Predict the structure of Saccharopine dehydrogenase NADP binding domain-containing protein.
Amino acid sequence: MVAREFDVIIYGATGFTGLRTCQYLARTYPQGVRWAIAGRSTAKLEEVRQKLVAIDPALSTLPIVQADASDMSALEAMTARTKVVLTTVGPFLAHGIPLVEACVKRGTHYIDSTGETPFVNKIIQKYHEEARAKNVVVVPCCGFDSVPSDIGTKLVVDFLKSEYNLDTKSVKMSLRDWCGAASGGTLASACGIMEARDGNMKSMSNQNELVPESAASKVVPAKISMPTIFYDYDFKQWQAYFFMSSTNEKIVKRSHGLGVEADGIGYGQQFSYYESMSCPGLFTATTTTVATILGGIGLGIGPIRRLAQKYILPAPGTGPSDALIAKSHFTIEVIGEAVKPENVSGEEGEPIRAIAVVKGGDPGYSETCKYLVESALCLVKNEDRVRKENKVTGGVLTPAHAFGQVLIGRLRDQGAKLTVSRL
């Protein structure tokens, strides 16, 4: 890649998540990163810059770039100035596609916070092959959607391979504990997903939707994973439908599929993946699942969705208070089971299993900002290592496939609690 003026441009810096992403970068990397903020309104960007000056007075001269999401010439001019664009501007299906096009055209790497699989599917279809040919790395879903699921799975898969030289047969994830709130932008994206799916729950639960076509015949066909309620003896709690599973499961399966495309095996020839959410009892699991289903159906009906957006849901650009963010947290557990070794029987033949634990602060506005910035810096500070270790060329990838242990290491360096051990 030719030399660029900036390492990273944060696009959408005036939004709720964008501002907090800027604040994380300002606090964590006061030196060593050449960056700028970008968005539609220079006046609002100036307000963001003044807030950043409170963190680091040197940011009084932080460059501002004006670019509207619908202005292709402005987007191309912006992307030509930087090595990586990090964007939080959603709903992505409505506003994000021109920016991906500009990045691929200008040879600029791309990171985003989306959880919208219809958007991911569309940019795969439109830009994956061109990005691969140009060695441009495009990585959507680098926020809470879907880094904990994706790198949690990567942790157990790599552990079983490195410690026991075994492929992974199955992985299950449970959100064990969490406290947090969504912003208006996040809920607007959720409405966008339902609008794109037209309320089709079967379409939303097609796990293999994002698996590369060239690997589809080598990936275990995914059963349609509709919401269920069950007791899990490993997690030792009742399990409810996890509202983010419809995105996370697809991203993890794409990571596996990209691995299959690369080496014929990926995570393992029998690999399967499933997510759920732990609840203290059957009643809570039932009410949580039913409420999630009804909410999804409601958002899938156009008139109800529009009324909710107008009168009930918070407006884009708004979000939880700093006090609530400070109190928020989450814990995710990921359990992987290895393929049973051949010619082994008896007690020694019990499946080998591993457990990864991912813990953090507020999912959306503490950890997401960390995930986004550290993902971008994988391409700024560690690009040679990323390409060598993960055999990455380019294309529309996933956090685990693109960054793998490099991202895990960067997150640990910044205090993320990521552990893996034998179960």
